[in-house]
């Protein structure tokens, strides 16, 4: 009888382990790098004290990493042939300060616990930390990701939303990453921070004889003044014209007022299918914060490698071998 009981318990334990495989946990490094979050937080705040761009650059880097090849730090790889993920057309707008934040944090972590913590986890922690530094909500970050072994520019196209995307296209691309429409709307709230280059929205101002009618006329004039036709392509403007350095729900209030910078922002209000969520988040910062936390945790699970898949990179910008 005992033998049967042992076999049964063994089988149960095996099934539980199988079920647990591939899942992230909050305390993943509690025994082998217990201070990892404090070390990363320190590196992020040092970098932030040098430049505000640390905040939007790191948050966007996490998003781009997760949507291409999963949250596996594939975006961090530097290729001598300029054909890695970061070399794709969309890379120009990934500010170098996000990469630098992860590199600095990794160096600090390696000096305490060498070879233990993945670059993918460091980026996930740093993305949470910058939200908090900008005044946004804090949340626990699940850990246990491994770093990927593939990083190719050619895998980027079609996996990231474009500024002229409409609701169906946004929903399709987010759904592929297990994110719902509400998650998508909440994550778009990241545009409460950071900058955009003029060419990403110039078509709304200049592509026809009248400006995009969903743009508030005063805001359109403001945008035209900041971004005249054929403006220097390096010119960038705040994406949230009201509170550009604070993580808050003003982004949604801007959408209600016709002050969404991209079509992909404004359409969240103009499309009747997503409008109620935008109005809710505009009126209720608690609802937005809660939805943002849920969505960030879900974003952090996209395409993860765990167990023996991938590696723990020594240098975030290069594969180990
Ligand atoms: C929903 C579809 C989305 C579209 C179409 C989109 C598109 C863009 C574009 C075109 C820029 C401007 C880049 C530039 O010209 O420098 C930008 C900036 C930014 N995006 Fe998004 N994005 C989307 C979702 C997200 C998500 C989910 C996040 C993060 C959770 C995010 C975070 C950011 C941040 C923080 C910036 C500012 C970057 C900086 O200042 O360096 N975006 N986005
Ligand atoms: C982006 O790609 C271009 C062309 O491949 C390259 O010259 C540039 O250095 C890259 N920028 C970043 C930030 O990696
Ligand atoms: C979406 O979730 C399913 C079920 O948990 C999982 O098998 C799949 O890998 C996930 N997709 C992505 C892109 O993470």
From TrEMBL:
Binds 1 heme b (iron(II)-protoporphyrin IX) group per subunit. The record marks 60 as: Transition state stabilizer. Its cofactor is heme b; Ca(2+). Removal of H(2)O(2), oxidation of toxic reductants, biosynthesis and degradation of lignin, suberization, auxin catabolism, response to environmental stresses such as wounding, pathogen attack and oxidative stress. These functions might be dependent on each isozyme/isoform in each plant tissue. One of its GO terms (cellular component) is extracellular region. Ca(2+) 2 binds at residues 192, 240, 243, 248. Ca(2+) 1 binds at residues 65, 68, 70, 72, 74, 85. Its EC number is 1.11.1.7. This is Peroxidase. PANTHER family: PEROXIDASE 55, PTHR31517. Transmembrane segments: none annotated. It is found in: Secreted. Keywords: Calcium, Disulfide bond, Heme, Hydrogen peroxide, Iron, Metal-binding, Oxidoreductase, Peroxidase, Secreted, Signal. It catalyses: 2 a phenolic donor + H2O2 = 2 a phenolic radical donor + 2 H2O. Substrate binds at residue 161. Heme b binds at residue 191. The active site is at residue 64. Disulfide bonds join 33-113, 66-71, 119-316, 198-227. One of its GO terms (biological process) is response to oxidative stress. Gene3D superfamilies: 1.10.520.10, Peroxidase, domain 2. GO terms for molecular function: heme binding; lactoperoxidase activity; metal ion binding. Pfam families: peroxidase (PF00141).
